[in-house]
From TrEMBL, chain A:
Its main location: nucleus. Residues 30-40, 714-727 have a biased composition (Basic residues). This is Origin recognition complex subunit 3. Residues 528-623 form the Origin recognition complex subunit 3 insertion domain. It is found in: Nucleus. Residues 24-362 form the Origin recognition complex subunit 3 N-terminal domain.
């Protein structure tokens, strides 16, 4: 962990760059805004140019990152928005329907709306508070914070008055007054000292909001304090009472609620788990008042698939993640976290790492920007750059780009570009001399092909709930030789029984999902097959070769269908069993055709990512790094995502000298020296004990370490013990203080538990092992 | 559906007649346009709408004749002082309605405060004062109360001022308007304070001082023109009464009998015969579960719709064979509805769907998947929390030792050797105790054991990741588990006992239902039954 990395090596590959903390780097870059001065400056003297080049590199990388990430972020946002709109529209419809129902029950009348006592009115029996349960389908609620804000905005735009409450408002500490206060603040836009429902009623009537429903959205019901939520619902509906209307011949059963009728409140509750959760929170009398309608948001897996489709497959100009990263993220998603937020965060980190570790990452910017004709221009531009570099190979050079952009390419970066193993391989195979253009276009073409084929496969997978995430990871792992006909034709005899094996979480079986997808393709009915081909036809637009073949297949199928229908009509007189059989066989032949088509596509066009030229630029996958556990990519991702504070604290306490870097104790390795930090000494001593630590023994060993003077001093001490007695006692006191402080610090960090009454001499270890 | 609409139409027309009353009243005094800013008058303290006779009142509350007569008697004739009354009885027995409609009958001014809406002493005090001072919160006033009042002593003083002023004006009013005979006339000089849901005050922070204050209000004020009526679901004994105030006179509202319930439900039915035959089927079984009108009516309304389904559009009363047919149609739904009486009711359409789902589900079949996403490690943690809560801690060693719980049989035999009585008693005890608590360490230990059994390891990406797997898997999942635990806590699957986080002695308890855990375990292919200690 060198504090300042060598400027020569730092921008290069991140393998050696151990302190590459993504956020740190981002921060650093952000503080140094690209100024025109540095961009225009031309300085050929080595030292100065080194610094400015460094700066320029940083800036350009930061800009690349900004562009890439803003692009990705907006795509993700759009995707999530689109996913939610149908649900939101459904809620909107329902809200207006329920509002109409409330209005039908009662036209708000001023005098009664303002009265404090329950209105004796004729509400149909069982009229309750209309409540929408919005199931977020995820135990973690991080993903849905924005969802509820979006819902609020959506409802506001459709003419409702909305208050967004969260579980924080329903805390037991503030009671029902707390949530009423927030409610009133959001509706009235004014702080109320003594919040009360009657204020809401008078506001609602005063503002002449009669024709607008009031919607109260509560984010995550599970986290609310149940008593407060109960009180709130009871207050909204205070007293479901039996009343006899005295207007309809004295015999009219009616139930009245104090405020729901006076103020048409509609609840939207976000539920993370299931209806049972609500039952557990609410008491039966509160449940009575809720008339429930259920809405479902997409599951995290669905959202994940949509995001992957949009970010990694559809926008194939942008960067991408390699198999190791993908697998790591997939496993993390399934096993540990399961939130999209984390996945997006990881993507961001990966983007940052890719941009900052890959010297050629600026190419990504070009790839993102380019569209249609511009693409060719960019290739030309690269060609131009390349030739210039060839000419001025030994010099630093500043190049004025075609688009007016300054690009400063330094020798190491260029070297790296030329030494990219994939590019070299490409040159070897193509026999061509150095050709950037073809390499880049090849990269793009293959990537596009690859993505569209993954999507085709996913279309099949949809029918049997294979998630895109799984398919994507498996496709990344795929090796070309796996597409031997034998492998894919392999029909598992115990297919039906083995299906559930694949579903066992976390284990990615080799070829599992792809083989299953092919299997399915053979089992699909003609209708489904038609649909899939239609989708394929759409997906493969732009890739002429495949597109044509798909169209061919489509026409074949329609032909077959016509024929079979014809056959059916012709053979209707014959026994049905025969026709059925015939139908089945013809069907399976079509299926076989489609399957073999897809197989051939795979064999022909799918290459392993590693064999695509320049794949290093697009696919971020630091395989080498994965071996060095601690600072490897997944290590970094791991720490960035989870933090793991406990482990960090323990490790750092045991190796405090690495951080303190003092001269006194950095030399001796692992041996306790008195100059070490007290807490560190104490914790190292803890390692020698079991789960119970005798405080006396511990203290004595601490004292022994602390007062372990060098040998000469010891001798001196022995010779003259008496005159220093007083000083000794003082020293001992400070040592005791130090030990007590150390123990308290250990307690605060959660590594120790203080002595109990039963065993006053012992402290207990809480954390074990690293 | 046609059933439901016909009474609605009738109601709508009647409602307009009801609403016309205050409006026409407003017409007489001030133009309608200024309705919003119209100042409140004493007449607003009287129940709006037309007056009703005593017979009408008694007729509209079946089974409440005695209580109504008692109430009217205790309130006495016009301008006579009264002792405080304490109206109590179970939920949904008509207490509030009876009292309110009695005031409609008497046309005397009253003030109503529900302790549900007024959730704190301050709100309660200010709400009473606002009504007495004829104050209305509005935007121009910044939605402020008439008087700011937080302390009980202030409240008594302000209340006395407000009451005397109001009674003065009432005296003047009765003198003037005695000649007028309008529907909104104000009878008498008495003013009544009605406190509803008094039992809720007991849960307030300062309940020890508020309840005696309210009960003692009569003595403190010493104004004979004030009457007090307390309405509560709990009886008087449940309020502490050692401060020596005059106890209010109790009036008990008993629960409705089956006949009374029938009368209540039969009132205002468009097709009495049909509904009667429906009640024949449902009232008796439901009567055993609950006698609350509100619960019954929410249970009945979807059932009645179901009941009418085979009839189609014909709204005739069923006869003979048809009754039997309707009965057999309804039969399966009754039992389902009986089980769901105290749970969340949903809109009719949804309920039907649910019913259909549960009716036509095969008996042994349960949903294999949980409805929401949970990460694998959270699932394992949930199972381990469940096990830690259900199994006695002493059995952990035998269940989770290195052999992976293979000596299960041995343990079982040992348990079965005990006498059956003892076993049953223990079973009962555990059932009563519910899920047990456990410290974090035990949870982590069990999690470690079962996640190793479940053949779930952190890394199966590639063998070359061995470095990470060996180095980081244990502690990595450790820190992760603490995160998972907190999210399980917030999802209400595990509750956390309150204690100092530094001490680390927090105890947890799994409150998740067995059904969910079983489903989770099935999803993971985890042999839950092998590890569950069965008594």
């Amino acid at each position: 962990m060198a504090p300042s990395a060598d400027p020569e090596t730092s921008p290069s590959i991140s393998t050696s760059n151990t302190d590459l903390q993504p956020f740190f780097l981002l921060h650093k870059a952000a503080s140094r805004k690209p100024s025109s001065k540095t961009r225009r400056r031309i300085d050929l003297s080595p030292k100065a140019s080194d610094a400015s080049a460094q700066e320029y590199n940083d800036n350009s990388r930061f800009e690349t990152f900004k562009l890439l990430w803003s692009n990705t972020e907006s795509i993700i946002k759009d995707v999530l928005k689109n996913l939610n709109t149908t649900v939101f529209d459904g809620i909107d419809k329902w809200v207006h329907a329920s509002f109409d129902a409330i209005r039908a029950c009662r036209t708000p009348d001023f005098t009664t709306a303002m009265s404090m006592y329950p209105i004796p009115n004729n509400v149909p029996i069982g009229a309750q508070i209309f409540t929408a349960l919005l199931f977020t389908k995820n135990v973690e609620s991080v993903d849905d914070i924005s969802t509820f804000a979006d819902l609020g905005a959506h409802m506001r735009s459709s003419g409702c008055l909305v208050a967004n409450l969260t579980s924080i408002d329903f805390s037991a500490k503030n009671g029902v007054g707390g949530c009423l206060k927030t409610l009133l603040r959001q509706f009235l836009l004014a702080g109320i000292d003594a919040p009360e429902m009657s204020i809401l009623a008078s506001w609602y009537n005063e503002q002449e909001n009669y024709d607008k429903p009031l919607i109260v959205i509560i984010d995550d019901v599970e986290r609310c304090s149940s008593s407060v939520l109960n009180d709130f619902i009871l207050m909204l509906s205070a007293g479901l009472r039996l009343q006899y209307s005295l207007t309809c011949k004295w015999k009219n059963l009616a139930i009245d609620r104090e405020w729901v009728i006076k103020v048409p409140i509609i609840l939207v509750l976000g539920v993370a788990t299931s209806v049972d959760a609500l039952r557990n929170i609410l008491c039966s009398s509160a449940c009575l008042y809720l008339s429930v309608c259920e809405f479902n948001l997409g599951t995290p897996a669905e959202r994940m698939d949509a995001v992957i489709e949009a970010v990694l497959l559809r926008s194939c100009q942008s960067f991408n993640i390699g198999k190791h990263v993908a697998t790591f993220l997939r496993n993390y998603f399934l096993r540990h976290d399961g939130t999209l937020t984390l996945f997006v965060k990881a993507l961001k980190i990966v983007t940052a790492q890719q941009v900052f570790s890959e010297p050629l990452s600026f190419v990504l910017r070009k790839l993102v920007n380019e569209e249609g004709t511009e693409a060719r221009l960019t290739f030309l531009f690269f060609l131009f750059v390349y030739h210039l570099i060839e000419l001025l190979y030994t010099h630093y050079l500043i190049f004025q780009g075609l688009d007016g952009d300054n690009i400063l390419l330094r020798e190491p970066a260029m070297k790296r570009a030329l030494e990219l193993p994939s590019l070299q391989r490409f040159w070897e195979t193509s026999g061509n001399s150095i050709d950037w253009v073809s390499a880049l276009s090849e990269l793009k073409r293959l990537h596009q092909l690859w993505s569209s084929l993954v999507m085709c496969l996913y279309e099949i997978g949809r029918y049997r709930k294979i998630s895109l995430l799984d398919l994507y990871c498996e496709m990344l792992k795929l090796k070309q030789q796996n597409f031997g006909a034998n492998d894919l034709n392999l029909v598992e005899k115990d297919y039906s029984t083995s299906v559930h094996n694949y579903q066992s979480p976390g284990c990615l079986l080799d070829k599992g999902y792809i083989v299953r997808a092919f299997q399915m393709l053979r089992d699909l009915s003609a209708m489904e097959l038609c649909k899939i081909l239609d989708r394929w036809e759409m997906l493969t637009r732009g890739i002429e070769k495949i597109h044509e073949k798909v169209k061919e297949l489509q026409s074949q199928i329609t032909l077959e269908e016509k024929r079979s229908r014809h056959d059916l009509r012709k053979e209707s007189k014959r026994p049905t069993a025969r026709t059925y059989k015939n139908d089945k066989t013809s069907n399976s032949t079509i299926n076989e055709k489609v399957a073999s088509f897809l197989q051939s596509m795979f064999r022909e066009y799918i290459q392993t990512i590693e064999s695509i030229p320049l794949h290093e630029i697009i696919f971020f996958d630091n395989v080498d790094n994965l071996n060095t556990a601690k600072y490897c990519l997944s290590g970094q991702l791991y720490f960035a995502l989870i933090g793991d504070p406990r482990r960090r604290i323990q490790a750092d306490l045991l190796e405090s000298r690495k951080f303190l870097k003092c001269s006194c104790c950095s030399k001796n390795d692992g041996v306790l020296v008195p100059s070490m930090h007290d807490t560190s000494i104490m914790y190292t001593l803890v390692q020698e004990h079991g789960d119970l630590i005798n405080v006396h023994e511990w203290f004595h060993s601490f004292m022994a370490v602390i007062s372990n003077p060098p040998l000469q001093a010891k001798k001196k001490l022995r010779m003259s013990p008496s005159p220093k007695k007083r000083k000794d006692s003082k020293e001992a006191r400070t040592k005791t203080d130090a030990s007590i402080q150390a123990v308290t610090e250990l307690q605060i960090t959660g590594l120790l538990r203080m002595p109990t009454k039963r065993r006053p001499d012992y402290v207990q270890r809480v954390a074990f092992g690293l | 559906m046609s059933k439901e609409e016909s009474p609605l139409v009738g109601r709508r027309t009647t409602r307009s007649s009801l609403n016309s009353t205050p409006n026409s009243k407003a017409h007489q005094e001030v133009p309608k346009a200024t309705n919003l800013s119209r100042p409140l008058t004493i007449k607003d303290l009287v129940f709006c709408g037309e007056s009703i006779s005593l017979d009408e009142l008694i007729n509209s509350f079946p089974g409440r004749r005695g209580q109504i007569l008692d109430l009217v008697q205790f309130l006495g004739p016009l301008n006579s002082p009264m002792i405080p009354l304490f109206v109590y009885g179970g939920a949904s027995t008509g207490k509030t309605s009876t009292v309110l409609y009695m005031f409609r009958h008497l046309k005397r001014p009253f003030i109503y405060c529900s302790c549900v809406s007024c959730y704190s002493p301050r709100i309660l005090f200010e709400s009473i004062l606002n009504q007495l001072l004829l104050h209305r919160k509005n935007e121009s006033g910044g939605y402020l109360s008439a008087k700011r009042c937080e302390r009980p002593s202030d409240f008594v003083n302000l209340l006395r001022e407000a009451l005397t002023a109001l009674i003065e004006s009432l005296k003047g009013n009765t003198g003037k308007s005695s000649s007028k005979k309008s529907s909104s006339q104000v009878n008498g000089r008495m003013i009544y304070l009605v406190f509803d849901h008094l039992e809720l005050i007991r849960e307030w922070d300062k309940s020890e001082s508020i309840i005696p204050l309210l009960f003692n209000l009569c003595n403190l004020l010493k104004i004979p023109e004030v009457g007090m009526i307390f309405i509560s679901r709990a009886s008087l004994d449940t309020f502490q009464s050692d401060t020596g105030y005059l106890e209010p006179f109790p009036i008990y509202f008993p629960e409705y009998t089956e006949d009374e319930l029938r009368q209540i439900f039969m009132s205002n039915q468009a097709n009495p015969k049909l509904y009667s035959s429906f009640l024949d089927l449902v009232l008796r079984p439901f009567y055993r579960i609950t006698r609350r009108i509100d619960e019954l009516s929410t249970a009945f309304s979807p059932l009645f719709k179901k009941y009418c389904e085979p009839l189609g559009d014909s709204v005739t009363a069923p006869v003979g064979d048809m009754t039997r047919k309707l009965f057999s149609h309804l039969q399966p739904f009754i039992s389902i509805s009986l089980n769901e009486t105290f749970t969340l009711s949903s809109q009719a359409l949804l309920k039907d769907r649910n019913m259909r789902k549960s009716v036509f589900k095969k008996p042994g079949e349960t949903l294999d998947e949980i409805e929401f996403h949970m990460s694998t490690s959270a699932k394992y943690l949930l199972i381990s929390a469940f096990l830690a809560s259900r199994n006695p801690a002493t059995l952990d060693a035998s269940l989770f030792d290195s052999t992976g719980g293979t000596d299960n049989r041995k343990r079982k035999r040992k348990v079965s050797e005990k006498s059956i009585d003892q076993k049953e008693a223990k079973e009962q005890e555990i059932l009563m105790k519910g899920p047990g608590t456990f410290p974090l360490e035990r949870l982590l230990a069990i999690h470690q054991c079962i996640s190793s059994v479940g053949e779930y390891s952190l890394d199966d990406e590639e063998p070359q990741n061995g470095g990470l797997g060996a180095d980081g898997s244990d502690s990595g999942s450790m820190s992760d588990i603490l995160l998972q635990l907190s999210s399980l806590c917030s999802a209400n699957f595990i509750t956390k006992g309150g204690s100092c986080p530094l001490e680390g002695s927090t105890r947890y308890r799994s409150i998740v239902s067995e059904d969910i855990v079983l489903r989770v375990a099935r999803g993971l292919k985890f042999p839950l039954s092998k590890y569950l200690y069965r008594r």
